[in-house]
Amino acid sequence: MIRVLLADDQSLVRAGFRALLDAQPDIEVAAEAADGEEAVRRVRELRPDVVLMDIRMPALDGLAATRRVTEDPALKDVKVVMLTTFELDEYVFEAIRSGASGFLVKDTEPDELLRAVRAVVAGDALLSPGVTRRLIGEFAARSKEPAAADALALLTEREREVMTLVGIGLSNEEIARRLVVSPLTAKTHVSRTMVKLNARDRAQLVVLAYESGLVRPGWLG
């Protein structure tokens, strides 16, 4: 059972998400929170699998709350998905850099929300791949200080190749087909790359691919 915590200051939004999620046989809403402070407190108490975190909330905004969750070693298995009203929210890229596993716009289709929750728990592809890749590309291109590429020296040639494919949004199965290897081998390469670069999850690996210059925004499909 996938346990979800809903953090949003609008009760109607929470009610809508709860109705959808609780109707699924493999998902349950463990708790709700109306602001960032309450969200962090409930995450520490309940250790849910996924937090659906609104970016704009009183007391403590979603970005700050996400940092508190992702920087706590005791909560390393908790995945945070940011909720935003606007696709080009200026905080989205920073949220992913802060440890969020991805984001969704609030008016996303129900099936997409369910797929996203299941995907992030499985550690699979980045959420909303088309929109997310475009946003990451845009914000990475605008970042003031490009990250040093020294960390890439830790990677083997194959791992750099795999990281590039992750960066352009391919799933493990797609990477396996591209490199003519098994999905398990592709997954192993991705996992080793994440460990070497100290990436919390696949979302951060994508960001690092852009920031290091390994992937360019113009390559997006």
TrEMBL record:
The keyword Transcription regulation applies. Keywords: DNA-binding, Phosphoprotein, Transcription, Transcription regulation. Residues 148-213 form the HTH luxR-type domain. InterPro entries: CheY-like_superfamily, NreC/VraR/RcsB-like_REC, Sig_transdc_resp-reg_C-effctor, Sig_transdc_resp-reg_receiver, Tscrpt_reg_LuxR_C, WalR-like. It comes from the Bacteria. The modification 4-aspartylphosphate is found at D54. Residues 3-121 form the Response regulatory domain. CDD domains: LuxR_C_like (cd06170), REC_NarL-like (cd17535). PANTHER family: TRANSCRIPTIONAL REGULATORY PROTEIN NARL-RELATED (PTHR43214:SF24), TWO-COMPONENT RESPONSE REGULATOR (PTHR43214). This is Response regulator transcription factor. It comes from Streptomyces venetus.
